[in-house]
From TrEMBL:
This is methionine--tRNA ligase. It comes from the Bacteria. It holds the Pfam family tRNA-synt_1g. It comes from Catellatospora bangladeshensis. The gene is metG_1. Residues 375-480 form the Methionyl-tRNA synthetase anticodon-binding domain. One of its GO terms (biological process) is methionyl-tRNA aminoacylation.
Amino acid sequence: MTRVYLTTTIPYVNAAPHLGFALEAVQADVLARHHRARGHQVRLLTGTDDNSLKNVLAAEQAGLPVQDFVDSNAARFAALREPLALSYDDFIRTSRDPRHRPGVEALWRACAHDLYQDTYEGLYCVGCEHYLTPDELDGSGHCPEHRTPPQRITEQNWFFRLSRYAAPLREAITGGRLRIEPESRRNEVLAFIDAGLRDFSVSRSQARARGWGITVPDDPGQVIYVWWDALGNYLTALGYGSDGDAYRTWWEQADRRVHVIGKGVLRFHAVYWPAILLSAGLPLPTDILIHDYLTAGGQKISKSSGTPVDPVALAGRYGTDAVRCWLLREVPRVGDADFTVDRLVERADADLAGGAGNLVNRVVTMVHRYRAGLVPADAVPVPEAKELVEAVAEAPWTIAAGLDDFDFRRAAAAVWAVVEEANRFVEQTRPWELAKAERSGDPDAGVRLDGALAALLTACRAVGDLLAPFLPGASALVTAQCTPGPDGTLPPPAPLFPRLTDS
């Protein structure tokens, strides 16, 4: 049986979650649900990065003990499960989970042959938790991501020999052992490798880390770099470094090891992390799937930008289905997507209230009106249903191809292609006219009406099934509306999705 290990990044908990991370969580959830529906064994991991200096500084600003502060915000990330309908199997916290510290220490020791001490002087962005070169700064000398000036740091650290791994990294990527999607990001990684890899600092002084984080083994004056710490969660959540079976089952023996990440952390996941794994003699991820940013008013949605959009509040106001629908139908495979509430409402009303919901309501209403709610049995197919039958048959393949290509918009569009074809079929066959002709004594019209209603119900049930990985709540509503009760009749027709513009 195919075994798939899926992960999101683990976000800093310096503030509450925002819609940008919700995008990533929902994308990973769709992939997990899709693979489960195909009969694959799936493990979906998410969690929080508690050990960042950003968290410490935010706690100090809030006047709270660091552990209390990160506990509070980490709970808000864990609480995304219900409002976003997430189906993660595991949630790891790097400060609290007993699996994490021993695993990070074991990974450090496994790479000991590539670690050495040296003095480092450079420009450090606390927002990125990363050193920047002067060439990477914007025209104002600021980090282009966070628009803040970096700190000039000089201290003795531990370094990792990244320079040793340029050739094996390039070979893994170009040979297909490590797949990076989309291609533009793959090319970006290859260009970074070809420009020359430099060893990078993988520890910080205890003083600069404020004593927060995982101490370097056998060096109590140093704390392991937060990115080494955080990246290790993909292994530590599986018990790496212990005698458990989960690591072997879900990392060594998995058919696919898939990281879903944002473009801002591409270098860490597609260069540093594989190099660390190569150094430790461990299998690489098979897939790194990268999404772009969400913006609001053209500015990146983030905790530090002043444009955080609260996904929990959105789901509470407009519904989980509406939030997931916008994220999956509006965000392109390549390129940022600008969010507004108006766009969310327009998309939900078009796709749910006016699309799938309207179709199902029309069809179930006609079955009740013309057949007393009984699904026509042994109906003779009508010739006009050919395109609808083909659309239903093609949709699962289109969805699978889209998701394998990390194109959620293309995959989800296949569901609404069935809805559109079903609506076209309704207008083409005009069941109300067939019912009128049947009442006037035309038996052929009754046969055609049975065939049309049967085809439409089949399409509506297919829509319910096809929606499952994308909008599980909507899927359940559609399926329930199209499922006969013990007496063989469909439930009474009811509006499934309210129009948000009317609420």
